[in-house]
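PROTEIN DESIGN WORKSHEET
SECTION A - STRUCTURE
LENGTH: 628
TOKENS:
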């Protein structure tokens, strides 16, 4: 059966599900609205490497209670997309947390160096908060959900979004009484307003329970998380939903940015963010120690105090302020005051049986246009571990008015300086590059690789080089693909698209996605030189990545030349192909180890550098390029 016939069959099936063939059951539990055409574009064209589907919400996503983990509805949805786009690489990521949509609003904020996740990565966000919002009034949940939907679009305007509602005892009670639950009604208002698809798994399951096809006890043993039998019901609904979702919209020629309408609810606020404790707006007094290892994920690092009376002060403008910290049996009690009010003491974290992330609302309903001050202090013996502040509002930008060079200088000024002496003959294979830098002219520089090379680009190291070589002009071109190395670029003449069309004088190849294959890098070098013989190369060993990655797990300060490893092999390729070579791994990891801070202090998520981490890369490159 050919692809055209399969497509016609899928369209017919989807048409039946949407009511075109007389069936109405599907329309009762899902609505397509504006669909997910941007995600369809990315699925079809595979332009972003790994395509992360960001599921955020309640404990149903954990799959707890399932004997067959593949029955998770998130897995079923990911597989359904894969069936429609077999050449795509959708990857399911699940993010559960306490606090329902209220904390989801902060978790999906536009930048949170301490919390340390890429929110929302990929191109599709699926939101499921029905179970997490059980203790929240629907009107309050609506404000958080609207803020969350707006946050995602503000983070990346081409993001697609889907709302999912899973079954709870409260929702089932309403459906049994033939009432539309208030929570569902208000969520559907938001879905209509923002033209977002919605999948009401709660309605689908409730109908099956009401019809006697399954008992609620057989569907879920705790009323929230489905059994395997319950999950199979969800899977039926998910499959029909995805089929209809894909059939309803054609794949666009290019992604179209979403234009946000005015908020549906006047009280909604799309300024939710996690203010990192090390933000310049947070003033510390006492013996606080930043950059310390957290006993729990997802914190990359925490601020620690072991002295009673140490204080933190945050000046802000906004409607709500909260705290995210670590509650632990050895924890210190905390007290807080807003705008000079009497201090209130938070419940002792010593009640925790084990360390856990703790998001806490401190004050809400504040005048969002007024200036406010939060003061937080340690109020008992023990260890305080602070992650950040949950703010629906804004803080002053410490870098306001600075240009990029001034900004990166300010970031670096707060760090221990880089001390690195580069090898004396490093320019042996870069004569034209060095001549351009010293003598003046334009240097076209291509950065080839993955998102770590994106971090390299984000360091703005070319501005440092142009300051050192003021007569030179550097045109930096970041030619990148997420999770991609030369094993990809070497194939199907991709060097034309990713390298040659940019007419480079110098190509920097690096990142962590070369799969340990130095020969693939050799192949790319040769392909480029076959078309542009005068192109020069600088090959970089890996920096950043996960702790499990080989260059971290088996780190040696100097390259181990006694074994078969990527750093050694890349050094040999560089020598044999007459490329410049920079073993950045050695001084990079040595700097982090000797910093007195944990690795997470330099990380924006589990893999990538934050602004401090980017400056390690940029300053090392500056030292390497310094003229002898």
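SECTION B - SEQUENCE
RESIDUE ASSIGNMENT:
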């Amino acid at each position: 059966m050919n692809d055209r016939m399969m497509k016609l069959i899928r369209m017919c099936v989807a048409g039946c599900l949407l009511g075109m063939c007389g069936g109405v059951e599907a329309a009762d539990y899902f609505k397509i609205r504006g669909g997910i055409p941007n995600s369809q574009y990315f699925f079809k064209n595979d332009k972003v490497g790994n395509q992360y589907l960001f599921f955020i919400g309640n404990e149903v996503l954990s799959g707890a209670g399932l004997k067959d983990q593949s029955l998770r509805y998130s897995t079923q949805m990911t597989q359904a997309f894969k069936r429609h786009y077999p050449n795509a690489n959708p990857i399911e990521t699940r993010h559960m947390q306490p606090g329902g949509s209220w904390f989801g609003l902060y978790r999906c904020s536009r930048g949170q160096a301490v919390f340390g996740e890429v929110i929302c990565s990929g191109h599709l966000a699926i939101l499921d908060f029905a179970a997490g919002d059980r203790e929240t009034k629907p009107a309050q949940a609506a404000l958080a959900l609207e803020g969350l939907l707006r946050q995602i679009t503000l983070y990346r305007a081409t993001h697609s979004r889907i709302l999912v509602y899973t079954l709870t005892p409260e929702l089932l009670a309403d459906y049994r009484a033939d009432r539309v639950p208030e929570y569902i009604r208000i969520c559907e208002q938001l879905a209509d307003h923002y033209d977002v698809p919605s999948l009401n798994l709660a309605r689908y399951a409730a109908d099956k329970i009401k019809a006697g096809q399954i008992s609620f006890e057989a569907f879920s043993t705790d009323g929230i998380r489905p059994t395997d039998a319950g999950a199979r019901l969800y899977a039926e609904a998910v499959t029909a939903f995805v089929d209809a979702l894909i059939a309803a919209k054609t794949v666009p020629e290019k992604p179209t940015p979403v234009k946000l309408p005015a908020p549906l609810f006047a009280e909604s606020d799309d300024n939710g963010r996690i203010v990192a404790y090390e933000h310049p707006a947070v003033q510390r007094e006492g013996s606080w120690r930043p950059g310390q290892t957290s006993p729990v994920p997802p914190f990359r690092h925490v601020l620690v105090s072991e002295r009673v009376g140490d204080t933190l002060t945050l000046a802000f403008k906004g409607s709500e302020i909260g705290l995210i910290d670590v509650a632990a049996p050895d924890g210190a009690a905390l007290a807080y005051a807003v705008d000079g009010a009497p201090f209130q003491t938070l419940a002792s974290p010593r009640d925790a049986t084990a360390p856990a992330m703790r998001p806490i609302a401190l004050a809400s309903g504040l005048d969002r246009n007024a200036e406010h001050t939060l003061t937080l202090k340690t109020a008992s013996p023990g260890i305080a571990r602070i992650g950040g502040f949950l703010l629906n509002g804004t803080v002053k930008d410490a870098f306001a008015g600075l240009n990029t060079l001034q900004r990166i200088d300010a970031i670096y000024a707060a760090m221990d300086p880089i001390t690195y002496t580069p090898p004396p003959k490093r320019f042996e294979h870069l004569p034209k590059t060095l001549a351009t830098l010293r003598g003046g002219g334009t240097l076209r520089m291509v950065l080839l690789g993955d998102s770590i090379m994106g971090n390299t680009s984000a360091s703005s190291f070319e501005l440092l080089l142009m300051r050192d070589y003021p007569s030179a002009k550097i045109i930096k071109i970041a030619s990148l693909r997420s999770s991609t190395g030369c094993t990809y670029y070497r194939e199907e003449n991709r060097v034309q698209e990713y390298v040659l069309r940019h007419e480079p004088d110098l190509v920097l190849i690096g990142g962590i996605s070369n799969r340990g294959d130095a020969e693939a890098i050799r192949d790319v070098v040769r392909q480029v030189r076959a078309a542009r013989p005068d192109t020069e190369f600088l090959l970089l060993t890996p920096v950043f990545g996960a702790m499990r990655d080989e260059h971290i797990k088996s780190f040696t300060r100097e390259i181990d030349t006694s074994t078969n490893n990527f750093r050694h092999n890349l050094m040999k390729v560089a020598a044999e192909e007459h490329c410049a070579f920079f073993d950045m791994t050695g001084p990079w990891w040595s700097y982090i180890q000797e910093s007195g801070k944990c690795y997470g202090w330099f990380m924006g998520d589990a893999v990538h550098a934050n602004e401090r981490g980017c400056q390690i890369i940029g300053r090392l490159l500056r030292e390497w390029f310094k003229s002898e």
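SECTION C - NOTES
The longest helix spans residues 228-248.
The mean pLDDT is 91.
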